Amino acid sequence: MTAQIIDGKAFAATLRSRIAAEVAALAGRGITPGLAVVLVGEDPASQVYVRSKGKMTREVGMASFEHRLPAETLQDELLSMIEQLNADPAVNGILVQLPLPGHLDESAILSAILPEKDVDGFHIMNAGRLATGQKAMVPCTPLGCLMLLRDHLGSLSGLNAVVIGRSNIVGKPMAQLLLRDSATVSIAHSRTKDLAVVCRQADILVAAVGRPNMVMGDWIKPGATVIDVGINRTEEGLVGDVDFDSVRAVAGAITPVPGGVGPMTIACLLANTLTATARVN
Ligand code: GUN
């Protein structure tokens, strides 16, 4: 079997054009959704992401507010910027790009963002709402993965899902979303014993570990749907957490890197910004 390729790039483009149409409708009522992105320091990958987020935000007709702060920015200075953005009615969504420089307290910073403007879904209130089945702002990367899975599989009910990775940004919220869709969910991680055996149970396998080409073809249940969240910069270029060639020969469907989950993340950020705007208008 050769797996079907799940085209996240095309799916994300369709989603962005739907968002652009809704933004145009809001413009008729004098409303422009606004997204503020805060970047502290000069991390090269973060700079690329932030530039790309600003470009896509403008392309769908939203207002983009970019704030670049020096790496030495103090905790109080960043907190006061977040307070200003919280109070600004032109700003519907606030995103603080991670990772932050080491002297800043990440969880305190993320918790300073108003939960209703927390378009990353990283605020503890949104994490708690998601975990307890309430209406939440959902982290963009797992939300994008869920959309691709639903589009490809229809119902996820009763399927065995294995998530490799337990980060607050991807692994944990991904598991919550799969559970909400009635999948049977396991979270595997660096201490999991017999990882290959665990993965072979999976009808849905989501890899979010940040280790290039780690998931091999003989870890895959024939016909499984494989979602590769990894974006690893190697000498061979950008590669995922999944060994594409060997897995493709066994899986039923697979997301490529690049062109799979990556484009979905920004599209979902714009979707969350639209949701945040709709909730106050
Ligand atoms: N750094 C890597 N991924 C993300 C993300 O989804 N949001 C933010 N704020 N920072 C990130």
TrEMBL record:
Name the residues that bind NADP(+). 165-167, 231
> Which Pfam families does UniProt cross-reference here?
THF_DHG_CYH, THF_DHG_CYH_C
Q: Which Gene3D superfamilies match?
A: Leucine Dehydrogenase, chain A, domain 1, NAD(P)-binding Rossmann-like Domain
Write out the entry's keywords from A to Z.
Amino-acid biosynthesis, Histidine biosynthesis, Hydrolase, Methionine biosynthesis, Multifunctional enzyme, NADP, One-carbon metabolism, Oxidoreductase, Purine biosynthesis
Domain called Tetrahydrofolate dehydrogenase/cyclohydrolase NAD(P)-binding: residue spans: 139-278
Q: Where is the Tetrahydrofolate dehydrogenase/cyclohydrolase catalytic domain?
A: 6-120
Q: Could you tell me the superkingdom of the organism this chain comes from?
A: Bacteria
MF terms (GO), sorted A to Z: methenyltetrahydrofolate cyclohydrolase activity; methylenetetrahydrofolate dehydrogenase (NADP+) activity
Q: Read off the SUPFAM superfamilies from this record.
A: Aminoacid dehydrogenase-like, N-terminal domain, NAD(P)-binding Rossmann-fold domains
What pathway is it annotated to?
Answer: One-carbon metabolism; tetrahydrofolate interconversion
Residue ranges annotated as transmembrane are: none
Enzyme Commission number(s) = 1.5.1.5, 3.5.4.9
Q: What is the stated purpose of this protein?
A: Catalyzes the oxidation of 5,10-methylenetetrahydrofolate to 5,10-methenyltetrahydrofolate and then the hydrolysis of 5,10-methenyltetrahydrofolate to 10-formyltetrahydrofolate.
**Protein name per UniProt:** Bifunctional protein FolD
Q: Which organism is it from?
A: Paracoccus rhizosphaerae
Q: What is the lineage of its organism?
A: Bacteria, Pseudomonadati, Pseudomonadota, Alphaproteobacteria, Rhodobacterales
